[in-house]
Each structure stands twice: as structure tokens, then as C-alpha cells.
Design goal:
Elements lengths: L1 H22 L10 E2 L1 H9 L7 E4 L10 E2 L6 H12 L7 E4 L11 H10 L5 E4 L5 H4 L10
Parallel strand pairs: 1-5, 2-3, 2-4, 4-5
Helix pairs in contact: 3-4
């Protein structure tokens, strides 16, 4: 019985360790690279300041003045993103956004963010849209394309 308890304890420890490691997902961005929606809305609405380049990597370019690369999960759209990026200074702030669904489920943000980093953009940011573009941007009255 004592040996069985030791074996079960060992198995439990291994399973717990594996489960916690499986839950740890390493994102290609850091917390500092997440841009708050209010901050971007203020920059778009502001005058005189240098505005970031804003690029949609989701199904639709909703944010006012944003460029449209299309869903970042598709190879042809990553090529569009690459072409857009080739026209911009690598030291200028570039903000990517999708908003099709919560970050955890979004198929578009990770491939696009990895690409922008590979291209050497020093101020690459990802718009922090935890739920979706409607909830986190449109419903808040932030500027949209007409």
C-alpha cells in the first residue's frame, strides 16, 4: 500500500507538471507590445502627432485609416502584409489588429505578428482586442472607416 501511494504520488506530480506546461502558451508578442485601444483611438483622433501605421490582418479593415492586408492565417495575405510593410520605415510604430474573435482563438494574429518581427520592425505592436472588434472598438465609439 505504501508503494502504491508513492507511485500514485509520482504519477500525479508528472501529470500536474505536464498539464501546467501544456497550458503555458508562448505568444510572439510581449505585454509591452500590446497597444490599448483607447491609446490608438486617441492617436487617430489627435492632430499634429505622428500617427502609427495601422494594418488590418483580419477579415475587414474597420479602424479609420487602417490598411487592409486580409486574414493573417492565409499565405497570400501574409505576402500582402509583407508588401505593405516594405513601404514603411522599420523604426516607425506599426499596429496590427484583427478582432474576429478572442486572442486565444484568433488564427490571424500570430502568423502576422511573427512576420512583422522577422522583418525587423522595432516598434511592432498588436492592438489589444481581447474579445472582438465590435465589443472592444466599435461599441466604444472609436473611429471607424466609412
Amino acid at each position: 500500500m505504501k508503494n502504491l501511494t508513492k507511485v500514485l504520488g509520482f504519477i500525479f506530480t508528472i501529470c500536474s507538471t505536464m498539464a501546467s506546461q501544456a497550458q503555458e502558451v508562448t505568444e510572439p508578442w510581449t505585454e509591452a507590445q500590446l497597444k490599448p485601444t483607447q491609446e490608438l483611438a486617441d492617436q487617430i483622433n489627435g492632430s499634429g502627432k505622428v500617427k502609427p501605421t495601422v494594418i488590418n490582418i483580419g477579415p475587414q479593415a474597420v479602424i479609420k485609416g487602417s490598411l487592409d492586408a486580409g486574414p493573417g492565417s492565409e499565405k497570400e495575405n501574409l505576402k500582402k502584409l509583407e508588401k505593405i510593410l516594405s513601404k514603411h520605415d522599420k523604426n516607425h510604430e506599426v499596429v496590427l489588429y484583427c478582432g474576429c474573435c478572442p486572442f486565444a482563438k484568433c488564427p490571424n494574429i500570430r502568423p502576422a505578428f511573427k512576420l512583422i518581427q522577422e522583418k525587423g520592425f522595432t516598434q511592432a505592436r498588436l492592438l489589444n482586442i481581447p474579445k472582438n472588434i465590435k465589443t472592444d472598438w466599435i461599441d466604444k465609439g472609436y473611429p471607424v472607416n466609412n
